[in-house]
Design a protein that fits this description.
Layout: H1 5-10, H2 14-30, H3 33-43, E1 47-51, E2 58-62, H4 66-74, E3 82-84, E4 87-94, E5 97-105, E6 113-115, H5 125-138, E7 162-164, E8 172-176, E9 179-183, H6 186-191, E10 198-200, H7 201-262, H8 268-298, H9 305-316, H10 318-322, H11 329-339, E11 340-348, E12 351-358, E13 363-369, H12 384-393, H13 399-409, H14 421-430, H15 440-444, E14 446-447, H16 449-456, H17 460-469, E15 474-476, E16 483-486, H18 487-499
Parallel strand pairs: 7-11
Antiparallel strand pairs: 1-2, 3-6, 4-5, 8-9, 9-10, 11-12, 12-13, 14-16, 15-16
């Protein structure tokens, strides 16, 4: 929507003014064009739009589209400025043909004409420039890795501030119910490799918030001290100015009296003028004395020791304001963004190393220890035999069967609980154990005990006795786990048995009967 100066003057409708002021006020609250657009549509707020469709030519009211809200917030005409030459055309050669791109936005410094305070404005020029900086900082889709993005909904406090220290990409925030995580998916999406970092949002948010409050606490105390000083000096400065004016007025009254005394009484015209001037100076002195008396009477009593101590406590206790029920997640995000430029995060084992880059140019190193409290993990190292057992079983069976086998063998989880499919899956992911795949046995040339018995042509128990006697090679990860037998060895044993049946038993004196 573009409402020019003529339209502002010819349509003094209060509804137009209230609608546009609502857009600017909501942008100051949400700091995002997209969220303002969604809020307006959810609330059913209509905006005036210039229409050229037949009989409805003029201004019509409708639910706003995104570009309408964006144009209202980026058009300098609403800040009382007249601008010309905000866009230009660019000519390029593509595939041997001339291509003209029109409507390319130019930087403000390159506009042909910019006249500020040209007409009545909805917002000040300073507010307009601040809005442009916020909109530019929200434009994450334009390939600028330095921008933080808009303050989005959600309880996580650091979206847009975290940067992966391994690959240099921004970390993405995701939610599972009320729980959130920060993950670096850039390398996996672009190159098919594993993700660099995936950490819980609650632990890193709490650590960063604690560090920011610790750094800002001296600033809060300094602000409280300055507030006390300002409260004391504000009235004192006004009273001092009145006293200086009274001193000047008394000097002028004394000077006027000396002039009146020195004049010849016979010169009545001059004497009358000097008397009038003297009376005016006396009235000025009387007025200033009355103002000083009023200021002194209305002067608030100075802060006592209890008030000073309370104000100093409020200045130092920023954590109280941070954890106040009325403080929303969006407010906390803006506080963090006002103090921090970005946070570089690296994961090294069970530790997260962070470097906080402050607005003033300083840097702070911060390290937190991960709490490995996911399902199937414990906060201290798992025994190596359990890791190796799960690694071996993952080659043989899926997670559900692994959980059943571990429960039968009496091996609990890190917290002493029984195993479930989800806990086995989390355990594998934590220790980088690959999942079982169908057909994996055949790829390795391995078969089960039942398959080996079928190949040899004996029962399962007979095949098991062959393994125990050493006639057939087989291995078992643990008691109750499936037997793993090499297919090639089974085939060789089957062929040998067919060529030479051998004695029925191992007793050499045992005789056999030949039946006709």
């Amino acid at each position: 929507m573009k409402v020019g100066r003529d339209r502002i003057e010819k349509n003094p409708d209060q509804r137009v003014r209230e609608a546009l002021q609502l857009v600017f006020s909501k942008f100051g609250e949400f700091q995002s064009v997209r969220q303002v657009h969604l809020w307006l549509r959810d609330e059913g707020v209509e905006l005036p739009v210039k229409s050229r469709d037949g009989e409805t030519r003029g201004v019509v009211w409708r639910l706003p589209a995104y570009n309408i809200v964006h144009n209202v917030l980026t058009n300098p005409i609403y800040a009382g400025a007249y601008a010309f030459g905000r866009t230009t055309s660019k000519v390029s050669i593509e595939q041997g043909r001339k291509r003209v791109r029109r409507g390319v936005h130019r930087p403000m410094a390159q506009w042909d004409v910019l006249i500020k305070d040209h007409h009545e404005a909805y917002i000040t020029w300073a507010q307009f420039q601040q809005n442009q900086r916020v909109i530019a900082d929200n434009a994450t889709g334009k390939g600028n890795a330095a921008v933080k993005g808009a303050v989005r909904r959600g309880e996580l406090l650091l979206p847009g501030l975290l940067r992966c220290g391994h690959c240099g990409r921004k970390l993405h925030a995701s939610y599972s119910g009320k729980l959130g995580r920060y993950s670096c998916y850039g390398a996996r999406m672009n190159h098919g490799t594993a993700r660099c970092i995936s950490i819980s949002g609650s632990s890193i948010d709490g650590a960063v918030a604690t560090e920011v409050l610790r750094i800002l606490k001296p600033l809060g105390i300094d602000a409280a001290a300055k507030a006390i000083e300002a409260q004391t000096n504000e009235v004192s400065a006004a009273q001092r100015q009145l006293e200086l004016s009274l001193q000047q007025a008394r000097y002028e009254a004394a000077h006027a009296r000396r002039q009146y005394d020195a004049v010849d009484p016979g010169n009545r015209l001059v004497a009358g003028e000097l008397e009038r001037r003297w009376n005016d100076t006396l009235l000025a002195v009387q007025r200033l004395e009355g103002e000083i008396t009023a200021v002194t009477a209305s002067k608030a009593p100075p802060l006592g020791d209890p008030e000073r101590q309370q104000l100093m406590r409020l200045g130092g206790d920023l954590e109280l304001a941070w954890s106040h029920p009325s403080a929303t997640a969006a407010t906390r995000k803006r506080i963090l963004r006002a103090a921090l430029n970005e946070i570089v995060v690296r994961r090294e084992g069970a530790f997260i190393n962070m470097v906080l880059h402050w607005r003033g140019g300083d840097h702070t190193a911060l390290q937190i220890k991960l709490r490995l409290n996911a399902a199937g993990r414990r906060c201290w190292p798992q025994p190596e035999d359990t890791k190796e057992l799960v690694r071996e079983l993952a080659r043989l069976m899926p997670d559900r069967q692994i959980a059943r086998l571990l429960n039968r063998t009496g091996k609990p989880t890190g917290y002493g609980n029984g195993w479930t499919e989800q806990r086995v899956r989390s355990f594998r992911k934590h220790h980088d154990i690959p999942i079982h795949r169908d057909g994996e046995w055949a790829e390795r040339g391995e078969i089960s005990l039942d398959a080996a018995a079928h190949v040899i042509g004996v029962t399962k128990m007979t095949a098991l006795r062959m393994i125990r006697r050493g006639d057939l090679e087989g291995r078992q990860a643990c008691k109750g786990a499936p037997w793993v037998i090499k297919e090639q060895a089974t085939a060789a044993l089957s062929a040998a048995l067919k060529r030479s049946p051998g004695p029925v038993t191992s007793i050499p004196t045992q005789q056999t009967f030949e039946f006709q």
